Amino acid sequence: MSNEPAVGLVVTGIGTVGADGFDFRTALGRHGYKYLPAASQYFLAAAKRALAQAGPDALEAVGPEERGAAVGTNSAAVALHHTMDRTVTATGAGDLSPVTAPYFSINLFGSRLATEHDLKGFNLTFTSPRVAGLEALQTGQRALATGRARRLLAGATEEALPEVEPGADTSEAGAVALVLEPEPAARSRRVAALGRVGVRSFFLPPKVAASAEGAERAAALLRDALDALGHRPDRPLAVTAVLDGSPVGEAMAAALDEKALGGRALAGKPERVPAGAGALEPVARVAAALAAPEGHPHAVVTAAAEGNAAVCLVTPGAQLDELSGTEASALPDAPAGTEASDGGEQPMSGRRRASDR
DSSP E strands: which ranges in 32-72? Predict the structure, then answer.
């Protein structure tokens, strides 16, 4: 493996898969996938589409030990756990399926991806409420920055919640996958750089969010995150906020104006999207922002009632040549950087399902 870090990462492939009408036989093949949990099937299919766009040599250009994966999820295993619980209580653990039983562990949902694509650099799973998919992008890029690998498959996958689960009426089901690689590698392969993504995550305590200073504290955290990501206040910024109606969500929403964001020029009114019961919608919005024809830098903001929050700054491909040295050095795939902390696709709608690509 090369000792030099993979800096200047760009997205070269995007794949999205929705649960509606999904057939693993069509998406993946007729054999070998039948007993995989649905969330694993979704992410495998999304990764296949992303790699098809990135080109057949996106991974093959480097060795297996230089390929990594990171996936975020909140509900991939919930339906399976319900089924396993019913089996155990009804007839005993001896009747659990040996094929599906290993997936009681959420860390195994990305194992087939690593096996199929020979990803030996790392294989990470994130489960933080609502921000897990963005954390997968953040941590995956950080791992590449430290030399752990030189190619990254990252995204989010969800399976619909059982009807008895809280949030089932806003279930998410589907997957989004992104392929990231160093910009020089993309140029040498003569594939288009679809853009850059940089993520900063932080924590807004619910009690603080519910206080009179909640919006002010949320605004300070957002400003710190955007500064750390290298966004210049004079560059028009489109904003999409995936938020719920909790005190944390409301405080974040109140912070999304030009004054609160330190005088940043906003490209239109921030779009607020009702959050679903999972981590998929924010990543789907990132994928949509990468394909936005207007090409503005775009901040995708999300937060959970528990206090987890994240900002993803999307720089579409058309804007890459305009990045200054200051902005490029602040991106999270560069070795240096300080994380903010405190203590063509249509995004999903309705039951918050990602649309097919």
Answer: 67-72
Instruction: Give the span between the Cα atoms of 10 and 150, in whole angstroms.
Output: 12
Sign of CA dihedral 284, 104, 277, 209: negative
CA distance 186 to 295: 20
pLDDT digits (tens, 9 = 90+) for 211-249: 999 999 999 999 999 999 999 888 899 999 999 999 999
Contact indicator for 117, 64 with CB cutoff of 8 Å: no
pLDDT tens figures, 13-62:
999 999 898 887 788 877 778 778 889 999 999 999 999 999 979 999 99
Where b means 16+ CB within 10 Å and e means fewer, 41-70 reads: bbbbbbbbbbbebbbeebbebbbeebbbbb
Amino acid at residue number 260: A
Compute the radius of gyration of the chain from its Cα atoms: 20
Which of 228-261 are b and which e, b meaning 16 or more Cβ less than 10 Å from the residue's Cβ? bbbbeeebebbbbbbbbebbbbbbbbebbeeebb
pTM of the model: 0.85
Cβ–Cβ < 8 Å for 247, 206: yes
Longest dimension (CA), the chain: 64
Q: What DSSP element (H or E) covers 314?
A: strand 308-316
149 near 143, Cβ under 8 Å? Answer: yes
Q: CA nearest 309: which of 237, 238, 353, 255?
A: 255
Closest CA to 120 of 162, 163, 87, 151: 151
The amino acid sitting at 244 is D
Provide the 3-class DSSP secondary structure of residue 330.
Answer: helix
Contact 112, 119 (CB under 8 A): no
